[in-house]
Amino acid sequence: MTGAKSQSPRIADDSVLVEVRGRAGYLTLNRPKALNALNHIMARRIDDALTEWEYDPRIDTVVISGAGERGLCAGGDIRSIHDDARSGGMASADFWYDEYRLNARIARYPKPYVALMDGIVMGGGVGISAHGSVRVATERSRIAMPETGIGFVPDVGGTYLLSRAPGELGTHLALTGAPVGAADARLCGLVDYFVPSQRLPGLLAALSHIPANEAVGRYAAEPPLGELADQRDWIDECYAVDTVEEIVRRLLDTGVAAAKEAAGTILTKSPTALKVALAALRAARELDYLERALEQEYRIACAALSSPDLVEGIRAQVIDKDRDPHWSPPTLAEVTDADVARFFRPLGRRDLSFAEELGAQS
């Protein structure tokens, strides 16, 4: 992209490219070798740009995309989180505090926020895209919340989004961590439009001078068929209970191959993370605002920093890549209600609170 660059004096680096073209502000995550993994500096830089553009009468639309061909964003920088958790630090908590506030800001941003969810969009990548007002997927999109596989729990507002998917689709995606394509992501309420990837350059150009929904409408098409619509019967039946053990039992008893495969996938995840994720999803269903879910997720995330499964999960999946995590406790039966409750305890002065913002809404 070319054009006059906006100013962001507080943070100067190139991990997020910030520029203005015509009537649109463009944010490009620019760490393609790391699949544009999001770190604290990047979150702050995005927030700075949103602050600058919110009341700028020259800017009608904000567009976020990822550099390279592999994806918008593969999630948070979990290597850094691994190192922080091992050392007992608080850098990750500080990052999540700002990241979750950014997620809430995106959801309430007063101008069209167009997220190009091309390629891999996972974890933190979902947080900076799926809360936007105009969400675009392509045939290359693979959208997921895979946190239970690293001993963590869907965050960045993921429990709020997934708890509002039709039936039990969100529970299925949260526990298995399964990625979905454009059609299934649209079914689950995570995207709005499908645009073939070869049309993205034209769309990017059009957004600089055409209203967002009109521009996307010119380039949108119907996505290829998904899979989840045909699986609703067994998904809704098997996941409509409030214990992970019973979910797994039902999945194994269905006689449906895809259901048994889902059970096998779930049983490879952190038992503690699975139980906490299910409790968080069920609680999020009863929360009226995204911000309340983010407050809950922040408590869970901070508790996870002192959980052995987070360090072990990242080690197995990302550091050593042996794909052989040793969870503690190792089985669902050994995870007690008290173990789960620990993740929901208030943090006192360290709690994330949107009381002021929500008070202004009432």
From TrEMBL:
Pfam families: ECH_2 (PF16113). Keywords: Hydrolase, Isomerase. GO terms for cellular component: cytosol. Transmembrane segments: none annotated. GO terms for molecular function: 3-hydroxyisobutyryl-CoA hydrolase activity; isomerase activity. Signal peptide: none annotated. InterPro entries: ClpP/crotonase-like_dom_sf, ECH_dom, HIBYL-CoA-H. GO terms for biological process: L-valine catabolic process. Residues 25-344 form the Enoyl-CoA hydratase/isomerase domain. It comes from the Bacteria. It catalyses: 3-hydroxy-2-methylpropanoyl-CoA + H2O = 3-hydroxy-2-methylpropanoate + CoA + H(+). Its EC number is 3.1.2.4. NCBIfam families: PRK05617.1 (NF004127). This is 3-hydroxyisobutyryl-CoA hydrolase. It comes from Streptomyces chartreusis.
